[in-house]
Amino acid sequence: MTSGPTDRAFSEWLERQYAVAARNLTLGVSATHLVKERPPFRQRIQPKPGSIVASPVMGAYDPDPDYFFHWFRDSALVMDALRILVADGARPASDAGLIRDFIRFSLDLRGLTGAEVLAKGDPRQGVDPDFVQHVRPEADLRGVAGDRIWGEVRVNPDGTLDILNWSRPQHDGPALRALTLLRCLDLDGLDPVARSKAAELLRIDLAFTLAHHPEPSFEIWEDSLGHDYYTRVVQCVALRRGAGWLEAQGDTADTAARCREASAALSSALDAHWRPEAGAYASLLPAVSGAPGRDLDIAVILGVLHAGLPSGPHSVLDPKAQATLAALEALFAGLFPINAGRPSPALGRHREDHYYGGGAWYIATLAAAEFHYRLAAALAAGADFTLTEENRGFIARALGAEPRTEELDSRRLAAAFLARGDGFLETVRAFTPADGALSEQFDRATGAQSSARHLGWSYAGFITAVQARRQAMRA
Fold this sequence. Notes:
By secondary structure, the protein is mainly alpha-helical.
């Protein structure tokens, strides 16, 4: 890349925004000073240490949504980003204590059961009549027992069971948390007691994933029940890496072998998501024949990134994953008015999305940047790159011309993908306010921020994208 005023301005913004993201990521972490009132449900929620609220903003769909919950998925991603910040010195070493508290809070959830909630009385008692319909039925609550707590999606940040209707079960959370724990175990600042507790929680997450991976669950966006790519890819890699960890810990070979066997089965299932007619991995395969599935969805790219395979199928080096991202770029380039004339389009979730207007998502656009950065780093480190019919369009977008095999040297490709990643970050920059605050979405027509404010996942997505860029620059 050439250096000049524009590049300096971009680099300066990047450093400022990284500092903002590093600070704002922890707004919902151990937010014990906050109190959430839900008057229609007679609830008063004060977070415990170690809990992570998805958004600390006190919304009640007025218009901000109520994200004052500890989501298993979001919390794992926020903790993974915090691990990065502690490791690179952007957050103080003492923040490793937040990871320790997160582990303790998560372990304390083991005893939650629906029967315990019902033993205290009918949860509908005292709820405003207009809101009774949003309370979980008794049969649903009674089903929360044993390890089923980990399919609950979310709990209240005070460590109590969520009694509201929601899309359950969801099985990506334990696998994501297992991947985060495996990475946190390499963090120097984690004390011996925290390491022991992390290992205990990791075994719980691996056991849950091993037991329940064949079952359908609600997908990442919590709309549809089925077998979705995102859940399967994070489960696949969590079990594969977990098997290696179990062997290193001297656990029984049988458990590790069953994890590897399940991981191999999930890998084969992931291959079945490829749709040649769409030129992309399908996001959701329905649980029931004839039920609606979903093809193009940014969840596939998020799954590839969060699983973090270094090479092979379902990694950033997979031509089919690259083709999926190219198809998503083409979809949203034409779907969102804000993308007119923009070489690196702002991305949303999927074509059918109508949630808060179905706008562009920061995590989606940041995922496109991170994907390109990781690809650039892999090529700079000597990874093999294959031109196929599937990824030809993806490469052409980065090079600005139809690719020819003889021109595809690793150095040139790495530079092109690095620049392409910067293009997506420039798009994020264009729709980020001066104070650096990141919501969930920005409007597809106006670019104005919408939906949940100060979304922890948005800050986490920015942090992991910048980390990937730094790795690509160093390679």
